[in-house]
Amino acid sequence: xxxxxxxxxxxxxxxxxxxxxxxxxxxxxxxxxxxxxxxxxxxxxxxxxxxxxxxxxxxxxxxxxxxxxxxxxxxxxxxxxxxxxxxxxxxxxxxxxxxxxxxxxxxxxxxxxxxxxxxxxxxxxxxxxxxxxxxxxxxxxxxxxxxxxxxxxxxxxxxxxxxxxxxxxxxxxxxxxxxxxxxxxxxxxx
Length: 190
Fold this sequence. Notes:
Blueprint: E1 2-7, E2 12-19, E3 27-35, H1 42-60, E4 64-68, H2 76-95, E5 100-103, H3 105-113, H4 120-130, H5 140-169, H6 175-184
Parallel strand pairs: 1-4, 4-5
Antiparallel strand pairs: 1-2, 2-3
């Protein structure tokens, strides 16, 4: 599975693509940061982020996009810009017909380091180890994007397969299964 992780931000939007399968270490496909100038109008900055995400989708062809879930911070301006960038990324991915999955920062940290309270340095170090890189991706937004993608490979992919299995198991596939399902409803037909 190929996953594009996006660490949204109005000034720096981290982008990282990894590829992997269950039971094998993920591999780095690409990593980078889309930067927008602070003096530019916010709407124009969002257009630049939109173009960057479109370019990454076209170039790297991920199967799923995972984005950090925005959470409340003390700085309202930062939260607003982050939420706007996340919304643009979700829109671009949805327009491309790709599934979009949100992961919380603590979920990503726990998946990558084993602790939901890990700091950025620890996340960067573990991303470097997991992907067998010579050095940590810089800036931290790039490492965070890779961490999101890895988290999804390890957690989201398994959760998706589990949900599919549960959904498949709940659908009657033959007469016997339909009879069992009807019995479970008290003998009433669906």
